[in-house]
Amino acid sequence: MNSIQELAEKFAAAFNARDLGAMAALLAENATAEVSKSDFGVEEGRQKIKETSLPHILGDESDPKPLAAETWDEDGTTYVLLREAEGDRALDCALKLEAEQGQIQRIDYLVLYHELEELTRISQKAGMKLRSI
After folding, report:
1. 23 lies in which domain range?
2. Is residue 131 part of a domain?
């Protein structure tokens, strides 16, 4: 069985490889995803997440500052941190993961527009700059 840390490492590696299929394969069939403190609602199911939020976080070749992923743990909570791949490598957003039975069951997207205070705290504890809005 995969631990949450192992799942986060695999998710970060798939993100860095821009492998949408590998990212989605780590999700439980009934996984949920939500942008924390937003009105976007909850995405329900692996396929819905694969079609909506995962492509959004991956971005595309036209992004002026492509992102890279790395894992970070704090007091038993596992995150995948998305930061600028080059330059000052500033933190862009954090994905808080929950797992059950060896698969990712839930992703909470912590984004600057809705979780500035929490991302500021995470960036300071993780020793990163925070991307400016």
Report:
1. 4-126
2. no
